[in-house]
Amino acid sequence: QVQLQESGPGLVKPSQTLSLTCTVSGGSITTTNYGWSWIRQPPGKGLEWMGVIRYDGYTSYSPSLKSRTSISRDTSKNQFSLQLSSVTPEDTAVYYCARWYYSDYVHDYWGQGTQVTVSS
């Protein structure tokens, strides 16, 4: 059973960089045919896909967030991370990490989500 767990600060000041880490257990982030995504949900809004890091390290980002987003990984720890720069209160959201299964085009495993609030 694959499990994902988000971790990171729950409060970030405007203009700073939001940093979150997703720790994966029960499966390797280098296994072929899987990607590892970050997705967020602002209050009262729908889910927004932010980007993905593929099993081979290739990254892809949402065009609307690409200039501020970076996803990296530490294969020795089986973790992948999100950095979102120059945050504003509009970046306040529940942030999720999830596994993308390329064969079925579905996010099949999700973390529980972590609330991040951008406020001074």
Strand proportion, as a percent range, falls in over 45%
Computed over alpha carbons, the radius of gyration is: 14 Å
DSSP helix count?
Answer: 0
Overall geometry comes to: globular
DSSP, total strands: 11
Helix content: under 10%
Largest sheet: 7 strands, mixed
Which series of helices and strands comes N to C? EEEEEEEEEEE
Question: Mean of the pLDDT scores?
Answer: 97
Low-confidence stretches: none
Helix- and strand-based class?
A: mainly beta
What is the CA-CA span between the terminal residues?
39 Å
Characterise this structure.
The chain is mainly beta and 120 residues long. It contains no helices and eleven strands. The strands form two sheets. Strands 2, 4, 5, 6, 9, 10 and 11 form a seven-stranded mixed β-sheet that branches. A four-stranded antiparallel β-sheet has the order 1-3-8-7, with no helix packed on it. Strand 7 and strand 8 form a beta hairpin. It is globular.
Provide a compact summary of the structure.
The chain is mostly beta strands. Helices cover 0% and strands 53% of the residues.
Task: Please render the helix and strand layout as text.
Blueprint: E1 3-7, E2 11-12, E3 18-25, E4 34-41, E5 48-54, E6 59-61, E7 69-74, E8 79-84, E9 93-101, E10 106-110, E11 114-118
Parallel strand pairs: 2-11
Antiparallel strand pairs: 1-3, 3-8, 4-5, 4-9, 5-6, 7-8, 9-10, 9-11
